[in-house]
Design goal:
There is one protein chain. With 57 residues, the chain is an all-alpha fold. It has one helix spanning 4-56. The model has no long low-confidence stretch (mean pLDDT 93).
Length: 57
Protein backbone atom coordinates (compact mmCIF):
# COMPACT_ATOMS: atom_id res chain seq x y z
CA UNK A 1 0.00 0.00 0.00
CA UNK A 2 1.68 3.25 1.17
CA UNK A 3 5.02 3.68 2.84
CA UNK A 4 5.03 5.90 5.89
CA UNK A 5 6.70 8.84 4.08
CA UNK A 6 4.13 8.61 1.28
CA UNK A 7 1.39 8.66 3.89
CA UNK A 8 2.90 11.78 5.50
CA UNK A 9 3.21 13.44 2.10
CA UNK A 10 -0.42 12.65 1.34
CA UNK A 11 -1.49 14.12 4.70
CA UNK A 12 0.61 17.24 4.06
CA UNK A 13 -0.99 17.60 0.62
CA UNK A 14 -4.50 17.27 2.08
CA UNK A 15 -3.68 19.79 4.81
CA UNK A 16 -2.34 22.36 2.35
CA UNK A 17 -5.31 21.80 0.03
CA UNK A 18 -7.79 22.25 2.88
CA UNK A 19 -6.07 25.39 4.17
CA UNK A 20 -6.10 26.83 0.65
CA UNK A 21 -9.77 26.01 0.22
CA UNK A 22 -10.83 27.70 3.46
CA UNK A 23 -8.58 30.69 2.75
CA UNK A 24 -10.26 31.09 -0.64
CA UNK A 25 -13.72 30.89 0.96
CA UNK A 26 -12.71 33.47 3.59
CA UNK A 27 -11.30 35.90 1.03
CA UNK A 28 -14.25 35.54 -1.33
CA UNK A 29 -16.64 36.35 1.50
CA UNK A 30 -14.58 39.02 3.30
CA UNK A 31 -13.15 41.18 0.52
CA UNK A 32 -16.52 42.30 -0.96
CA UNK A 33 -17.69 43.19 2.57
CA UNK A 34 -14.51 45.20 3.12
CA UNK A 35 -14.78 47.04 -0.22
CA UNK A 36 -18.49 47.75 0.31
CA UNK A 37 -17.83 49.16 3.79
CA UNK A 38 -15.04 51.39 2.48
CA UNK A 39 -17.26 52.72 -0.32
CA UNK A 40 -20.12 53.38 2.11
CA UNK A 41 -17.80 55.19 4.53
CA UNK A 42 -16.40 57.32 1.68
CA UNK A 43 -19.94 58.16 0.54
CA UNK A 44 -20.91 59.23 4.08
CA UNK A 45 -17.84 61.46 4.39
CA UNK A 46 -18.52 63.18 1.06
CA UNK A 47 -22.19 63.69 1.93
CA UNK A 48 -21.23 65.16 5.32
CA UNK A 49 -18.69 67.50 3.67
CA UNK A 50 -21.35 68.73 1.21
CA UNK A 51 -23.78 69.28 4.10
CA UNK A 52 -21.18 71.32 6.01
CA UNK A 53 -20.36 73.36 2.91
CA UNK A 54 -24.06 74.09 2.31
CA UNK A 55 -24.49 75.20 5.93
CA UNK A 56 -21.45 77.48 5.73
CA UNK A 57 -22.85 79.36 2.71
Amino acid sequence: MFDFDQYLGFLAFLTILTIGFWLMIFLVSFIPYWIGGALYENFKLKREAKKREAEAN
